[in-house]
Design brief:
The protein is α/β, with parallel strands linked by helices. The protein has three domains: 5-48, no CATH class; 62-159 and 295-324, Response regulator (Rossmann fold); 161-292 and 329-334, Rossmann fold (3-Layer(aba) Sandwich), CATH 3.40.50. It contains twelve helices and twelve strands. The chain has a six-stranded parallel beta sheet, sandwiched between helices. Strands 7-6-8-9 form a four-stranded parallel beta sheet, with helices on both faces. Helix 9 (190-205) links the parallel strand 6 (180-184) and strand 7 (215-217). Helices cover 44% and strands 14% of the residues. This is LacI family transcriptional regulator. Keywords: DNA-binding, Transcription, Transcription regulation. GO terms for molecular function: DNA-binding transcription factor activity; transcription cis-regulatory region binding.
């Protein structure tokens, strides 16, 4: 049998208002009273009346997760980390996919807020900082995952994308590859800019020319990786001796194109991806890549978000920014 707020108030000998403040960790009550109410809630198997809370202008024990592409195995792992963490704290997750489309992104914000989520985890910010400014104005907690805006500091958890790309190019250069094609996405995406910077810096350090013709931009999916590779080998002379793809998903498309062109990997062209998705060790040849620990990014971001949601009203939030160091995974595709 479950208890409601009236039961807790009678059991603890306090008002319903005090019980509400203790459960929401908001308002001016003593630490002793808060702990007493929370202990009673556990003992009596308290169950919140979520519809009533929402009607009263509050939020449910759900959070929204806006992802750029839920068909990408990288995001599946990130979602897994976020959901596991949310369950530990008694929260549910509503997922919204944008396909890196700014209009879908804005619709996602609107839909999730209409569902009175407690806060947002966001991996897609192609619409810029204005939606984030609006969230702040409405006092909606949010955390960015593997994205950030240089001109709008806020909470985020991300991998050191510049370092990861730098490690890959250093590895390829150490193998003797000098003409390295980079297949990547739009510069509106912060991780694209970061990885491109790492790519360029490593080339310069190894005495390689930075040729803008060796940077191909496309949508971040399998087909685009495939088509960009075919296009590059039609247009570039001399042809690249190695390819660094923005993601493992792109790299799989690249690999199909190279097979069709009769190019052996790595004998004719070396190949490296990024993300270390579950399939990377199992394709042929196994893919050299970078692990950016997507599960941990999702989990750490959720911890910060739940902490923000439950911040007492009388406390000021101190922004949190976490950078995880990536790990180079060398396999057969790079020689």
């Amino acid at each position: 049998m479950t208890a409601d707020m009236n039961d807790l108030a009678r059991y603890c000998g306090v008002s319903i208002t005090t019980v509400s403040r203790a459960l929401r960790n908001k308002g001016e009550i003593s630490k002793e009273t808060r702990e007493k109410v929370l202990a009673a809630a556990k003992e009596l198997n308290y169950m919140p009346n979520l519809p009533a809370r929402i009607l009263a202008g509050g939020h449910s024990n759900t959070v929204g997760l806006i992802v750029a592409d839920n068909s990408n195995p990288y995001y599946a792992e990130l979602i897994h980390g976020a959901e596991d963490c949310a369950k530990d704290y008694g929260y549910g997750v509503i997922l919204y996919n944008t396909n890196e489309d700014d209009q879908l992104e804005l619709k996602g914000h609107q839909m999730l807020l209409e569902n009175r989520v407690g806060g947002l985890l966001i991996t897609s910010i192609t619409s810029g900082k204005q939606p984030l400014i609006e969230l702040n104005k409405r006092k909606i907690p949010f955390v960015l995952l593997n994205r950030f805006l240089e001109d709008y500091p806020t909470d985020w958890v991300r991998s050191n994308n510049e370092l990861g790309a730098y490690q890959i190019i250093q590895h390829l250069c150490s193998k003797g590859y000098k003409r390295i094609l980079h297949i990547t996405g739009s510069e509106t995406i912060s991780s694209v800019r970061e990885r491109q910077t790492g790519y360029i810096n490593a080339l310069k350090e190894n005495g390689c020319d930075v040729d803008p013709n060796l940077i191909y931009r496309c949508d971040l999916n399998l087909e685009s990786g495939y088509k960009s590779t075919l296009k590059a080998f039609r247009e570039l002379d001399p042809a690249p001796t190695a390819i660094f793809a923005y993601s493992d998903l792109l790299a799989i498309g690249v690999l199909k194109a190279l097979h069709e062109l009769g190019k052996k990997v790595p004998a004719d062209v070396a190949l490296a991806g990024y993300d270390n998705i579950e399939y990377s060790p199992f394709i042929e040849p196994p893919l050299t890549t970078v692990d950016q620990f997507a599960y941990e990014i999702g989990s750490e971001g959720m911890k910060i978000l739940i902490e923000k949601i439950n911040l007492p009203e009388d406390e000021e939030w101190q922004p949190k920014q976490i950078i995880l160091d990536p790990e180079l995974c060398v396999r057969e595709s790079s020689g």
